[in-house]
Amino acid sequence: MYQKHTVCIQYLIGIIGNLKILISKRITANLAVAKEHISEKATTRWQTNISYTGSLDGSKTDPDTDLSNLNSYEVNNHLVSFSNQFTYTRNQPSFYRETDIQITANQRFDKIKQTKFVQLENAMAFPLSRVEGEYDGYYPEAKYIADYTVDGKPLDVFVKMVNNFQFNYKAYKNELNAGFDWQLSKNWGRGQEYDIFRPIDPKSTFRPRAYRDVPAYVTSALFLESINSVDVGRHKLILSLGIRGNTMMNLPSHFKMHGKIYADPRANFQWELPAFELLNKKTKIDFTLGYGKQSLFPDLNLLYPELYYRDVQQLNYFHNNPAYRRVNYKTIIYNPQNPEIEPAVNEKFEARADLAFGLHQLSVTVFKEKMNNGFRSMNQYAVYQYKKYDTSVLNHNAVTAPPDINELPYQTVNENLIYATQQNGSRMDKEGVEFQYSSNRVPVINTRFTLSGAWFRTKYENSLPLYRRSDYATGESLYPYIGLYDGMEPRSVNEVLNTNLMLDTYIPRLDLIFSSSFQFSWYSAGRLLPMNGVPSHYVDGAGNIFPFDPQTVKGTPLDKLIIVQNNDLYNASRRPMEMNLNLKVTKSFRNKSIVVSMFASRLFSYYAPYWKNGIRINRKGANDPYFGMEVNFNL
Length: 635
What we know:
Largest sheet: 20 strands, antiparallel, barrel
Distance between the termini: 16 Å
Radius of gyration: 32 Å
Structural class: mainly beta
Number of helices: 1
Mean pLDDT: 89
């Protein structure tokens, strides 16, 4: 049995322009305990780890910009982590070989406190209601102090069990892995808290909800993997087949995903060629083909979005005497939750070649992946009705009380609106080449070179039609029509080439590690594909849907739904080379009981200038360097 204790104190200093210095203080502590029991039949190993990380980040406001001297901002983060691993391994030959169980729990305590001096630009009113109906609003003070707190207590629990079985027959070997995993995420915090009569953002109509009111995020999966290998002469063939069944638990029964299991198959074939001598060095070549499918469940923000509040001002009577003022709203609440949402499915094909030449390693991978039902925000339309009160009948010099809306004449108004929902409406096609080379440690300078890089080309587009409202103005009232467009979402093709060269030098006499990395983005290019600004259908003010004929709507208000395209938007753009140099020096003392590291990110940067639309873009000084130091104590 052994125990290991680690304490780390880290200071990070960042320079932002010439105005402000942010100092981050972080403390970490770790306790690890392990015990192992070996018998003739089996080996049992248990290992547990408890760690704590706390940080206090302070930000001083620039006195030249904060003349009130009342603003403050404070962030406190604390993380307690517990992990436990139990492994049982048979020491005697048998079909059953091993069981591994992992349990991890992380509890965070995050709090943001902000005080802000708010001064309204003009007279304004706030809607306050959290339920639908007609309610009076509130006229705030022209100046006030807003106190704002964000309280988060996210809990993450992960459990995984894997059982290993092995079967060998002559040149054939088979290994089976079967098990399950279970994950829970729940935030027990109170969320955003502030005085609704003194909001930190007076223009926001957001109604905060407590984090703890959002249901827990729970997923579970069963998996089975079979690894088959056979020796054919001096060649070796390996075929791996696997399947994973995923399900999302704790969902309301009206969700389409409720009770469903989504299967993710994968297959991998590897051919290991016989090793041979080349220039007196052992050389080995492998070829690999792979296919896999992955189901990505929507997160909590997509499953349980915030309610959308539409606050329509029916009356705004602002009198010089505050006692006679009255503002009245009609609040309509829309739930953007989409119970039809399903996991986004990503499919990937890849081919890889690996070359080992002595201690030199080279790997090149070509891949292609696609996703036809990715998550994205989509517009939905709705129709509502409200009253528009007429205060012209009032004698403003003779009023002795706020207006009575039951005695005011009004006009009934029908309007429509657009709000966002989350749907499986995004398509992505991606292809590329990745490579990595690592050398042996060069004698004399004792340095290892690692070169990695990738070329990617990605195409994004929308896979579903989208509702859009025209920007055309019709006086005080909203434009009454909404268009349904099948090709009016941006479709883009982007391309990028990156490389990273790392130099790792070790000086044993000083127990010093000197690391440097040269990060290059050789170019990044992109272009928008042409869009279609003619809708296929339109929605009128009453919510009725009709086909759209561009020929018959000429000269009518409906022709404002046709969005004229700017062909200059579809010109390809290209950004030239960008380079950053990062350095890190690590020194240990007292038999590695104390480890000190100092690093500098973007110590040197070069961003090549380029031309766009006839204008020279000079990016010198676009990013400032970032310095830091880390100290680890092993007790």
